[in-house]
User: What shape does this take?
Amino acid sequence: MKNFVIPRRYAKALILIGREDGKADQYRDELNGFVEVIEAESAFEDAIINPLYPLEERRKILTTVIDKIGMSNVLKSFLMLLFEKRRIDHLRGINEFYQKLVDELNGIVRAEVTSADELSSEAVEKIRTSLSKMTGKDVKLEIDQDPELIGGVVTKVGDIVLDGSIKTQLLNMKESLKKGERV
Assistant: This one.
């Protein structure tokens, strides 16, 4: 099981700064961009995380890349703090939590919709509208397909799962028949 305490703590600290100076969206873009660099260049990640390399060399590499990217002073200081506290390896988790916090700050909720078949643009818009009414927030949808659902959709908004799939309905029916209940 992953430990989310550290990423959550640092993400909350950064969102407090972003909310205070009004640059939360800018920090989101910068942080996400830096994580993309790390994901694209595994050698770079290894160079700044691996304790087998001398600390000063790792610090120099990190500083050089941050300067080349051209980040704000706040995010540069934030990344250097993560490095000094040996928390830079939590950067992906911090980014994930920070993205959610900025969305929350902007009144946006993300939802995952999984369907058996490709959904029409009208169906996607109806789902978005319904979820917006339900949550009272602007909804960003991530659409996936899973042919095993047979039909229907499964929607996940935060911790809430709305399962309207044929597969689940059939499984529920099967359980009811096993118990001898009337379907």
